[in-house]
Design brief:
By secondary structure, this protein is of the alpha/beta class. The protein has two domains: 4-186, Class I glutamine amidotransferase (GATase) domain (Rossmann fold); 201-320, Arc Repressor Mutant, subunit A. Helices cover 47% and strands 12% of the residues. It has helices spanning 16-32, 85-94, 107-113, 129-135, 159-174, 176-186, 201-204, 211-222, 230-236, 241-252, 256-274, 279-285, 291-302, 306-313; strands at residues 4-9, 37-43, 49-50, 56-57, 61-62, 71-74, 100-103, 121-122, 140-141, 147-150, 153-156. A seven-stranded mixed beta sheet has the order 5-2-1-6-7-11-10. Strands 3-4 form a two-stranded antiparallel ribbon. Strand 10 (147-150) and strand 11 (153-156) form a beta hairpin. Helix 1 (16-32) crosses helix 6 and helix 11 (256-274) runs antiparallel to helix 12. The longest helix is centred in the C-terminal third of the chain and has 19 residues, at 256-274. It is globular, with a radius of gyration of 22 Å. GO terms for molecular function: DNA-binding transcription factor activity; sequence-specific DNA binding.
């Protein structure tokens, strides 16, 4: 079996979990199947680096002495705001030689600065997607998924999504059983689908300032199977449908319909992840009415069917 070298780049201001999360995944896979991964860390000059949380990390070597990697992993952190030119220059020269280029969180900015994301679809932490798009217009930035694969380049969102991506790569390399073993050791899901949204409906929308609108938001999340038309929600807020729709969008940043769609999708996801309820039962409980309506919503938003979504998360018996 071919051993794959995973080279993790270090720099001052790096996010420690961006380094240790994926590293633990690959190290766990190496323990499960010896001889499959070789982990190596390197900083621009081989000197210790200080992470954003104040920890000191000692690299194995300098980048100039680093082995040619199969997987080159670039973490994020505050240090990506003013990157070391030695690092971006090294990435520009050596990045294209790696069989896989991987970034975690704002590590995407380092890949972009080195020109390695030009013409590619990529993501980063949702709070920084706008900046990535502005500073690097040649990159097609997708703010929604927890990770994006474009050819041999993979970019991920915030901290824990780096673990999801690393598990997906282990599954690709060694199979589902090995990835599942590592996931169980780390007490995480085998892997969330890359198309899963980065945050919940409640986080995606702002909380309305006015009490009637806040009450409607809470009521929607607690009753996804109810009549959630604009007319019905406007009646709960004691507003006309037109006034309600305008006020809701102004105060939450999204339309009532889109908010309802997100709540229902999130509710269905949780039931698929945490229960053994059948798809038909979940579709009714989540307000879709029919399994086909729920399937269309999942494919549109996540690029996968409810059945496939559940398979990736859990192995639970379902009730017909």
């Amino acid at each position: 079996m071919t051993q794959r070298t995973v080279l993790v780049v270090l720099f001052d201001g790096v996010q420690s979990l961006d380094v240790t999360g994926p590293s633990e995944v690959f190290a766990g896979a190496e323990k499960h199947t010896p001889g499959t991964y070789r982990l190596c860390t390197a900083s621009p000059d081989g000197a210790p680096v200080r992470t954003g949380s104040g920890l000191t990390v000692v690299p194995d070597r300098a980048l100039s002495d680093a082995p040619g990697p199969h997987t080159l992993l670039v973490p994020g952190g505050e240090g990506t705001r003013r990157p070391d030119p030695r690092l971006t220059d090294w990435l520009r020269r050596h990045g294209p030689r790696a069989e896989r280029l991987v970034s975690v969180c704002t590590g995407a900015f380092l890949l972009a600065a080195a020109g390695l994301l030009d013409g590619r679809r990529a993501t980063t932490h949702w709070a920084h997607c706008g900046r990535l798009a502005r500073e690097h217009p040649a990159v097609e930035v997708d703010p929604d998924p927890i990770y994006v694969r474009d050819g041999h380049v993979a970019t991920s969102a915030g901290v824990t999504s780096g673990i999801d991506l690393a598990l997906a790569l282990v599954e690709e390399d060694l199979g589902r059983r090995a990835a599942l073993t590592v996931a169980r050791q780390l007490v995480v899901f085998l892997r969330r689908p890359g198309n899963q949204a980065q945050f919940s409906a409640q986080l995606a929308a702002q909380t309305a300032r006015r009490e009637p609108l806040r009450e409607v938001q809470h009521w929607v999340t607690e009753h996804p199977d109810a009549d959630l038309t604009v007319e019905a929600l406007a009646a709960r807020a004691a507003l006309s449908p037109r006034h309600f729709a305008r006020a809701f969008r102004t105060e939450t940043g999204t339309t009532p319909g889109r908010y309802v769609d997100r709540v229902r999708l999130e509710h269905a996801r949780r039931l698929l992840e945490d229960t053994g309820d059948g798809v038909e039962e979940i579709s009714r409980a989540s307000g879709y009415g029919t399994p086909e309506a729920m399937r269309r919503a999942f494919v549109r938003a996540l690029g996968t069917s409810p059945a496939e979504y559940r398979r990736r998360f859990r192995s639970v018996p379902t009730r017909s």
